[in-house]
Amino acid sequence: ESDTASEISFQFNKHKKTPSIGSHSSDMASVSSVSGSVLSVYSGDFGSVDAQGTVEFALGYDEKNREFQIHVSQCKDLAVVDEKKGRSDPYVKTYLLPDKARMGKRKTSVKKRTVNPIYNEVLRYKIEKMVLLIQKLNLSVWHNDPLGRNSFLGEIEIDLASWDWSNRKLNWYMLKPRSLSAINGVDHRGVMNLSIKYVPPGSLGPKNPPSGEVHIWVKDVKDLLQLRPSGVDSFVKCYVLPDTSKKSYQKTRVIKRDTNPVFNHTIVYDGFHTEDLKDACVELTVWDHEKLTNHFLGGIRLGLGTGLSYGISVDWMDSTQEEVAFWQEMMSAANEWIDGLLPLRSL
């Protein structure tokens, strides 16, 4: 598979205020993907209730069945969500981090009208012990809302690499507010080495190029998460948001069994007006490729991070200060390659 440039047209539709993208590529092997714009690590309401109370649980590993087991016993003195009715309907949810999508969530039943719920349920993950030891357990408690706006009641995070596996007893843990690492997505997922360039319309001669172009040169990625003993089979996906259609989707080839993959792949988006740079966002995400599904490893979003796109509030216009500075430097230095080394993050 060659690393020739992929070309994509970015066309701004003034009536719909939504860009539409057409694309072609020399490297379009079919893959199964989760979504163009990756969801946040958490979804729900974090601001309305202060975390309080405790949770009792025990951890164990069944060597015979190769199964990680979380015995969730009970909670005490949880926060009250509905103060008028003095009511909370709590349940417990677990994830294995950093790759939530790969292992999925597990959750207990919902216990209604209590701040002292008793569960006595076992949540199970089929996972190899050596893979488990590079994970963190995130256990959180939530109030179940019938309308889907569940409220966060507190969490505990445990580094399984340092866990005492001889300890299979039930223990009490204080529930904590949402962690800073979860809020900022600062868990280390690797670093992407890339260059970008903006070529304004007509800057290379009369009608050359006929429209503005954004060039993205994905060079390599360092220190990817190793999700299994054999390493990781990674590739990079690219969209120019707000368009997440199949026409806008581009990807690199898959680099197998390497946590430091070299891609050396260039993508060119044309059809750009200079003013589009304020409202568009280049989303680059790294994925682990498997036959049935792909697993999100980390990503970056290059844009101004204003929270707005063409006057509409969007959650993906959330570039970090480092990503914003990188994008601004490209905007202010037409026809010049801007080099960057940006940390991958949860999106």
From TrEMBL:
Residues 51-173, 188-317 form the C2 domain. GO terms for cellular component: exocytic vesicle; plasma membrane. Transmembrane segments: none annotated. It comes from the Eukaryota. GO terms for biological process: exocytosis. InterPro entries: C2_dom, C2_domain_sf, SYTL1-5_C2B. The keyword DNA damage does not apply. It is found in: Cell membrane. Pfam families: C2. One of its GO terms (molecular function) is neurexin family protein binding. PROSITE patterns: C2 (PS50004). Keywords: Cell membrane, Exocytosis, Membrane, Repeat. PANTHER family: BITESIZE, ISOFORM I (PTHR45716), SYNAPTOTAGMIN LIKE 2 (PTHR45716:SF8). This is Synaptotagmin-like protein 2.
